[in-house]
Inverse folding.
């Protein structure tokens, strides 16, 4: 499906199509909300990588009224859409335009973060070295006991895109870079949720 990011209607149509093509997204999103809800902090600060139009953020902010949220995306139109979607929560929201394949975002986010997470996105950064780089860089931004949670497509031999890694490979990379209590917390359809703690 062609992406029309020039209008709110086009963005909403594209976002709706994601949910239609991958109905497991709702289960994955709820899993992310629950994991962040389990954080020990009374006022958790979280960072979403590739926040898109802000729908997952809206779900989080609605469920967790003490949460402060930073979302990063490279697309200005998507961030504008997120800004509108999250207007009710504006005092708890920071949106940043940045390319995750560059290092500028590392100094822009409020740290330490209690959680860094992404849903159905990191595979689009390129291949395994780009995903591994995000894992390595993110660890330094986490508070002790905080976690990185990546919910993304598993490797599929019928669609061997280089950024789609096996569940085992995600865990190997997290362990390689010093994450603790590494685990796969959910598999839903072709989605796999990989977690590692600082």
């Amino acid at each position: 499906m062609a992406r029309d990011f020039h209008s709110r209607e086009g963005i909403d149509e594209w976002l709706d199509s994601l949910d239609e093509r991958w109905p497991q997204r709702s289960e994955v999103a709820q899993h992310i909300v629950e994991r962040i809800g389990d954080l020990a902090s009374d006022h958790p600060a979280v960072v979403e990588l590739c926040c898109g139009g802000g729908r997952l953020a809206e779900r989080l902010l609605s469920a967790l009224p003490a949460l402060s949220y930073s979302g990063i995306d490279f697309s200005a139109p998507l961030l504008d859409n997120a800004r509108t979607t999250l207007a009710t929560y504006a005092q708890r929201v920071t949106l940043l335009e940045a390319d995750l394949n560059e290092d500028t975002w590392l100094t822009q986010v409020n740290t330490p973060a209690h959680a860094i997470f992404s849903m159905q996105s990191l595979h689009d950064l390129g291949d395994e070295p780009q995903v591994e780089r995000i894992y390595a860089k993110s660890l330094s931004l986490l508070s002790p006991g905080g976690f990185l949670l990546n919910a993304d497509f598993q490797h599929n031999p019928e669609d061997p895109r280089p950024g789609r890694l096996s569940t085992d490979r995600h865990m190997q990379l997290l362990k390689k870079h010093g994450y603790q209590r590494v685990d796969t917390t959910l598999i839903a359809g072709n989605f796999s949720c990989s977690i590692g703690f600082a």
Residues 101 and 130 are 7 Å apart (CA to CA). The first helix runs from residue 8 to 21.
